[in-house]
Design brief:
Number of helices: 14
Low-confidence stretches: none
Structural class: alpha/beta
Mean pLDDT: 95
Bound molecules: uridine-diphosphate-N-acetylglucosamine
Strand content: 15-25%
Number of strands: 24
Helix content: 25-40%
C-alpha cells in the first residue's frame, strides 16, 4: 500500500486548479444509465470514479475517461444487478439503485454495509423508491427490487435532507409517470448539479427556494453533454493546507458561492480571503486563531466533509476550538492520529474539543477514511520533522494527484509505493 512521506514546515506559494467534484460526478454517472449517450466533462480521475465506471461496464455500458471527460454509451446495457464486490468498492454505489430500477424495472444489489464513518443506513432511499412504485425484498443480504407496473410520481417527505436519498429519488422520478415532489430534500450544490444534468438530458426538474424538488417524469432522457461543478471540499482542503502553513494560495476554477460556510471560518482563524467569480485567494497569518464552534450541518451549513481538515488547522491554533459533528456518528477517527502528531484533542460522542498546541511533530500515522486522511496531510505539512502517512488509498478516492498538486506549491511530499519506489 502507498504512503506519503511529508517533510513539514515548508511555506507554500502558488496557484492550483480545483478538480471537478467527485460527489457531483458520481450520481451524474449513475443517471447516464437513463440516457443513450452522455459526455461528462470535468470528471476527476479518482478510484471512486473508476469504481462507478466499473459498475457501468458490468451493466453492459461502454465508458471511457480521457482528459477529464467521461463518455458513457449505454446501448449495450443488459444487466440489472450489481455484485457484492462492486458494491463494496464504494459506498456511493447505492445511488445506482434508482437508475437501474428506472431503466430495467428491476434491480438486484447487495446491501451496502457500514463504512469508516459508522453505520450508513439506506432506509430513506428505500422508502422513497417504494413510494415511486418499487417493491423491495431482502433476499439473504441482497435487495431484490421490482417496479412491475412501472414507476409513478409521488409526494415524498424526507425525515432528514439525505443527499444520497434525494439523488436516488430524483433520478428514478425523472422517467416515472407523473409528477414527484421531494420535501425536505437535500440542498447541496451536488443536488443542483444533478438537476442541471437531468435537465440537459430533457428531464424536468425544478428546485424551489425552500429546497423542495419537483420532478415531472418524461418518457426518456436524451443524450447530452454536461460539465461537473468544481469540488468544494477539495477547495476547502487546499485552503486548509495554506492556512496551517502560514501561506498564500490562489485557487482557480473554484465556485466561492459553494464555500459560504467555510470562508467565514477561515476568516475567524485569522486568514484573509478574496473571492472572484471563479477564483479564491487566501493569505494566512503566522499562527491561526481557534474557532469557537464548528457545527457540521446539511448545506448551506458547515460541511461534514470539511470537519477533519479544519480540525487539523485548529490543532495548531492559539486556543480552544469546539467541533460538533451532526451528520455522522463516527467521524472523529482522525483525531487519534492527529494526537500522535502532538495534537491535544478530546472526543466525547459527537463533540470534539481541540486545544491548540504551539507545535505539531512528524509521526507515523494512518489514514482512517478519505477526509480524515486529508487532515493528516494538512497537519503533516505544518509539523516539525517527517511524517509517514499510510493507507493513502482512502485519500486517493477523493483527491486527484494530491502529492503533485502540493509539490507544485513547494511542499515536500512524496508518494512511496509498496515496493519502495518513489513517485
Ligand atoms: C453525506 C453528506 C454529503 C457528503 C457525503 C460524503 C450531508 C447531509 N451529507 O452524504 O454532504 O458529501 O456524505 O461524505 O452532509 N441516513 C439515514 N438513512 C438513509 C440515508 C441517510 O439514516 O437512508 C443518515 C445517515 O446515516 C447520516 C445522514 O442521514 O447520518 C446523512 O446522510 P446522507 O446525506 O444520506 O449521506 P450521504 O449521501 O452519504
Amino acid at each position: 500500500m502507498g504512503k506519503y512521506i511529508v517533510e513539514g514546515q515548508a511555506r507554500l506559494q502558488g496557484e492550483l486548479r480545483v478538480q471537478g467534484s467527485k460527489n457531483a460526478a458520481l450520481p451524474i454517472l449513475a443517471a447516464t444509465l437513463l440516457t443513450p449517450h452522455s459526455v461528462v466533462h470535468n470528471c476527476p480521475n479518482l478510484s471512486d470514479i473508476g469504481a462507478a465506471s466499473n459498475i457501468l461496464e458490468y451493466l453492459g455500458c461502454r465508458c471511457s475517461l480521457e482528459e477529464g471527460t467521461m463518455t458513457v454509451d449505454t446501448a449495450g446495457c443488459c444487466r440489472d444487478d450489481i455484485p457484492d464486490n462492486l458494491m463494496r468498492e464504494m459506498r456511493s454505489s447505492i445511488v445506482f439503485l434508482g437508475a437501474i430500477i428506472a431503466r430495467c424495472a428491476r434491480a438486484r444489489i447487495s446491501m451496502p454495509g457500514g463504512c469508516e464513518l459508522g453505520p450508513r443506513p439506506i432506509d430513506m432511499h428505500l422508502s422513497g423508491l417504494k413510494k415511486l412504485g418499487v417493491s423491495i425484498r431482502d433476499d439473504y443480504g441482497y435487495l431484490d427490487c421490482r417496479a412491475e407496473h412501472g414507476l409513478h410520481g409521488a409526494k415524498i417527505s424526507l425525515p432528514f435532507p439525505s443527499v444520497g436519498a434525494t439523488e436516488n429519488i430524483m433520478i428514478a422520478a425523472s422517467v416515472a409517470r407523473g409528477d414527484t415532489e421531494i420535501h425536505n430534500a437535500a440542498r447541496e450544490p451536488e443536488i443542483y448539479d444533478l438537476a442541471a444534468f437531468l435537465c440537459a438530458c430533457g428531464g424536468k426538474v425544478q428546485i424551489d427556494s425552500s429546497g423542495t424538488v419537483y420532478v415531472s417524469g418524461v418518457e426518456q432522457l436524451q443524450s447530452c453533454e454536461h460539465t461537473v461543478i468544481p469540488d468544494r471540499i477539495v477547495a476547502a482542503t487546499w485552503l486548509s493546507c495554506a492556512a496551517i502553513t502560514g501561506s498564500r494560495l490562489h485557487l482557480y476554477d473554484v465556485e466561492p458561492q459553494h464555500l459560504t460556510a467555510c470562508i467565514p471560518m477561515f476568516e475567524e482563524a485569522g486568514c484573509e480571503l478574496r473571492a472572484g467569480e471563479s477564483t479564491l485567494d487566501i493569505v494566512s497569518p503566522r499562527r491561526l486563531l481557534p474557532l469557537r464552534m464548528v457545527r457540521t450541518m446539511p448545506y448551506p451549513g458547515f460541511p461534514t466533509d470539511a470537519q477533519a481538515p479544519f480540525m487539523a488547522m485548529c490543532a495548531l491554533s492559539s486556543g480552544t476550538s469546539v467541533f460538533v459533528e451532526n451528520i455522522f456518528e463516527n467521524r472523529y477517527k482522525h483525531a487519534g492520529e492527529l494526537c500522535r502528531m502532538g495534537a491535544n484533542i478530546k472526543v466525547e460522542g459527537r463533540v470534539a474539543v481541540v486545544q491548540g498546541v504551539p507545535l505539531l511533530h512528524g509521526a507515523k500515522v494512518e489514514c482512517t477514511d478519505l477526509r480524515g486522511g486529508a487532515s493528516l496531510v494538512v497537519a503533516a505539512l505544518a509539523a516539525q520533522g517527517d511524517s509517514e502517512i499510510s493507507e493513502i488509498r482512502h485519500v486517493e478516492r477523493g483527491y486527484e494527484d494530491l502529492e503533485g498538486n502540493l509539490r507544485s506549491l513547494g511542499a515536500k511530499i512524496k508518494k512511496v509505493e509498496k515496493s519502495g519506489d518513489i513517485c
